[in-house]
Amino acid sequence: MNRDFLSAKLQEIKSRFESGKHPIIAPVWEIKIPNLLSSNSDDKYRFQLVKEIPLNFLLNNLHESYLSLFNQKILFNYRLKEYKVCNILSRWDEGLPIDPPTLIWNEHLDKIQISNGIHRVNTAIIMGAKKLPAVIPNKDYLKIYPLLLESSGRDYFK
């Protein structure tokens, strides 16, 4: 696609959302073969794909620095790059999947961090998603998955 088309598409999506004349767009995730787990990559042996993580669990277990970002419930947030948000919405609007975010465990903070996919997580929250998939390195999966299994946590969305 050429730059002018992308710029026009970005402005069209942004103006639809800012005017309040937008549909809720359901997230479409690549859970069959995310790029990180593709057969061309040695990484497929170092990561786990978790197909459903409740967003309330994720938000309750993230480092506090993320919460001010996600609590704003603003799609075009000054902390996020507009073109990334528009690209996510454009792909989801066309039914095209996007790789899930990558989560890691921060040993020093005993909290989850998003190492890749902050824009995807924020956009999914704004679009009303309750769950999302995630890719997690094996070493961090051993810390995160047991928490997920035992978590009852508060409901972030109430």
Q: Could you please describe the fold and organization of this structure?
A:
This protein is of the alpha+beta class and 158 residues long. The protein has one domain (25-150): Conserved hypothetical protein from pyrococcus furiosus pfu- 392566-001, ParB domain (Alpha-Beta Complex). It contains 6 helices and 4 strands, in the order αβαααββαβα. A two-stranded antiparallel sheet has the order 1-4. The protein has a two-stranded antiparallel sheet with strand order 2-3.
Secondary structure elements and pairings:
Elements (H helix, E strand, L loop, with lengths): L2 H16 L28 E8 H7 L2 H7 L11 H12 L8 E5 L4 E6 L1 H9 L4 E7 H13 L8
Antiparallel strand pairs: 1-4, 2-3
Helix pairs in contact: 1-4
Which second-level CATH architecture applies?
Answer: Alpha-Beta Complex
- How confident overall, as mean pLDDT? 80
The domain tally reads: 1
Strand adjacency order, main sheet: 1-4
C-alpha geometry: globular
- Assess the beta-strand content as a share of residues: 15-25%
Order of helices and strands: HEHHHEEHEH
Number of helices: 6
* SSE class: alpha+beta
Task: Tell me the radius of gyration.
Answer: 16 Å
The major β-sheet equals: 2 strands, antiparallel
**Secondary structure: helix percent:** 40-55%
| Uncertain spans | 153-158
According to DSSP, the number of beta strands is 4
